Amino acid sequence: MKPHHFSVVEMQHNRAEYEYIHNGKASISTAFEINEKAEIHLSIPRAIGVIDAYMEIYDESVCSKLADLKGEWTGFSGEYDSYIFDLSEYNLGTGLYFMRPRLLVLGAELYGHRWAGGIYFDTKSELTNMLQLSICDFKYKEPKKIRGGVIYHVFVDRFNRGGEYSIPDGARIMRNDWKIIPEYPEYPGAPLYNNTFWGGTLWGIIEKLDYIKSLGTSAIYLSPIFRAYSNHKYDTADYMSVDPIFGGEKAFCALLKAAHEKGIEIILDGVFNHTGSDSIYFNRYGRYKELGAYQSKSSPYYSWYDFQQHPTQYTSWWGIEILPRINPDKPECGDYFVGDNGVVDKYAKMGIYGFRLDVADELSDDFIAKIKHKLSAPSKDRILYGEVWEDASNKSSYGSRRRYYLGHELDGVMNYPLRSGIIDYLTGRGTDKLAYAMCDVTANAPNRVLHNQMNLLGTHDTERILTVLGDESTEGMSNYQLARLRMDPGKRNYAIKRLMTAYTILATMPGLPTIFYGDEAGLEGYRDPFNRMPYPWGKEDTRLIEHYKRLGQMRIANEVYKEGEFKLCYLDKDLLIFSRCAGESKFVTIVNNTDSALIFSFDNDGLDLLNNKRSISFTLEAFGAGVYKLSLDTHVEISGGNVL
Hints:
The protein is α/β, with parallel strands linked by helices. It folds into four domains: 8-136, Immunoglobulins (Immunoglobulin-like), CATH 2.60.40; 150-273 and 328-557, TIM Barrel (Alpha-Beta Barrel), CATH 3.20.20; 274-325, no CATH class; 565-642, Golgi alpha-mannosidase II (Immunoglobulin-like). It contains 15 helices and 36 strands. Strands 1, 2, 3, 4, 5, 6, 7, 8, 9, 10, 11 and 12 form a twelve-stranded mixed sheet that branches. The longest helix has 20 residues, at 489-508. It is globular and about 80 Å long.
């Protein structure tokens, strides 16, 4: 939908406020559970001269009007008329909907368009900038076990060496620490064997569990551990086998046991959209005894793949021949993953907490729902994440709206919009993306999803966050140059300051902050594979690590970070303030995005949680962030005015 632009006069005189009401309580959430009483409250300027107010409700395609709900006038509030719309009057059923307010005024009809946190009315009837509504019917136990903690994302080969492992034929093991990444393509997309290993293992992770726990970690998300030829393991060779180069199933069982003893859950990467061509299923090179689909149409796996001309022409992921696509919607393929004693069943019985689904938007809703059912049935506290880069509440792919959040599928996604918003904000590129992430994306997630989101600053698919915040252009540089490029000390110090602020924002938003191993230690790196350098043991940036630890322990010590109510209080290019509330306290995050110190005060004592200092007045350094515990009725004053 294209944004509608309003004149200054329109914005001043035709701006209405709105609230979603859940069982009688106002909330930012646009998503209701099916048994909730759902209402919308509009506060409309009396100057508009409303005769009647209506709420039009449209289907997810915005092609069909389903209802035209008349609002009930509930009185005056200052200069506003108040109207309530009872959405429960209509049995909408589980689904995604869009809404538009419509006003009857003397001699005309006015149509509402959502804009900058409010609704503006004019005579233009285009269906633009509509209100969103989701009705959800959750079938499984709400996953709460890891809330309030941190997810630590480990790329196994690059984290820590240790224990026994087997080296497969064709693999190269690095014996020394790396100065530069030893293997990279000549240009992005060029073929690469990816058979050079640093030697990280599951045993090595066990050795570092105390360190991982010190960051406030409640779950470890592992890069793929299934047997595969490459170091990244996204080219699965055998889903039923933990790769021997990582220590095999013995090491994995030991990791599960050791992690659980420390209160840490394990989440696996589920790559169920494609296999490797060098696998027991495809077996292009004849490495395995089983008859693969490439070798014969008689293979039990032949129907998994889409051959245009057997065996040389087949559908692969993004046209990469070594990653032939499979079709898990075919029962003979899907049952291998979600049937009794299938892939999901095996690892769930071993004790994992859940899966993160690689390229979730390339998997069907039906298949994702089957994974969730097998993982969680009958009433297990287990979690299913998806790799979705957009707002997953209204995501469309392959011509249809997805049903990720409606109750049968995902418990959360990788929150890339928040990452983009934080980066833009801290690098001086404006507030639009951060406002979108904090308002739209946050509000559109059902509450039980919102508090489970994987909030992240970097992953194995992105440049290292420290490098990004260094804000240095690499346009036109070759992979040879990027492999050797590092920030100068001045730029690095500036980037570290930005990263400390970025992680403060991330760690105090609803959801779970997700750390890509080494970000907290100051790893740099450009695009894949330069973002996958090994963890710099003994060369960590201690300023960053101590900051990450303080925030992790702060989250554990304060229940508000499990599911406290979120409110964006103030946002412009210089200042960001948001709060989390629970019980009799509110926890306020303040970001000073300027090059000068910021002095502010409270009208009651506040506790600086990062420095354990109690006062009425505080100073926040340039490009810094703070977190403060206040009583519910406390206000913040900056430059002579209250902003909270």
